């Protein structure tokens, strides 16, 4: 059985050491205090930022393919990943034509193009309204169900509630 977890931090500066909570197949939400930035990345780790990981001058598909190539994968097409994240048929579009939720979904595809063992998502729903934020969390939980550990840093208890487990960090 795949599990998801949430980690909540109390007030104060700094970021939570996210990776120690990552377990393959588990989605972890981290509710840190302060505005610490996401890790710059490590082998086997993909980082999803609040505003996505998209270059505006590239199509969505080219963003995904580039991310795969930068991670050392010979990714030739983005179609499968875009379908996985709910963006089938949007590969030829540019990021500025996407809605906030579509941009977040495209960011997930970019991260997954590197086939990471762990996805660290720093406030991925921060630019989204309530329903869209929950839809994005559903997508991240689906990523976890496929075997990738997902750690979500968020201050939103509703986002954390989508997890199976909540760990509070003071």
Fold and architecture overview:
The chain is α/β, with parallel strands linked by helices and 170 residues long. The chain is 30% helix and 19% strand. The chain contains five helices and six strands, in the order E-E-E-H-H-H-E-H-E-H-E. It has helices at 60-70, 79-84, 100-113, 130-145, 157-160; strands spanning 3-9, 26-31, 45-48, 118-122, 149-153, 165-169. Strand 4 (118-122), helix 4 (130-145) and strand 5 (149-153) form a beta-alpha-beta unit. The radius of gyration is 15 Å and the shape is globular. It starts with a strand and ends with a strand.
Structure keywords:
alpha/beta; globular
Uncertain regions spanning at least 5 consecutive residues: 12-20, 31-42
Distance between the termini: 29 Å
Secondary-structure element pattern, one letter each? EEEHHHEHEHE
Based on CA atoms alone, the radius of gyration comes out at 15 Å
Q: How large is the share of residues in beta strands? A: 15-25%
What is the topology, as strand order, of the major beta sheet?
Answer: 3-4-5-2-1-6
What structural class do helix, strand and pairing data support? alpha/beta
Number of helical segments?
A: 5
Largest sheet: 6 strands, parallel
**Could you say which overall geometry the principal axes of the C-alpha atoms support?**
globular
Average of pLDDT: 77
Q: What percent of the residues sit in helical stretches (DSSP H or I)? A: 25-40%
Please count the beta strands (DSSP E, at least 2 residues each): 6
């Amino acid at each position: 059985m795949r599990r998801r977890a949430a980690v909540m931090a109390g007030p104060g500066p700094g970021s939570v050491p996210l990776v120690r909570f990552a377990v393959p197949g588990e989605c972890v939400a981290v509710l840190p205090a302060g505005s610490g930035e996401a890790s710059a990345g490590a082998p086997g780790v993909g980082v999803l930022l609040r505003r996505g990981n998209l270059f505006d001058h590239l199509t969505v598909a080219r963003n995904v393919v580039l991310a795969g190539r930068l991670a050392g994968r010979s990714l030739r097409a983005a179609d499968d990943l875009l379908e996985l994240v709910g963006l089938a048929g949007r590969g030829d579009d540019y990021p500025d034509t996407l809605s906030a939720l579509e941009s977040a979904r495209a960011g997930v595809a970019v991260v997954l193009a590197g086939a990471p063992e762990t996805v660290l998502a720093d406030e991925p729903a921060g630019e989204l309204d309530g329903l869209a934020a929950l839809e994005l969390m559903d997508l991240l939980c689906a990523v976890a169900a496929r075997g990738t550990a997902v750690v979500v840093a968020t201050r939103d208890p509703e986002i954390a509630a989508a997890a199976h487990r909540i760990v509070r960090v003071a």
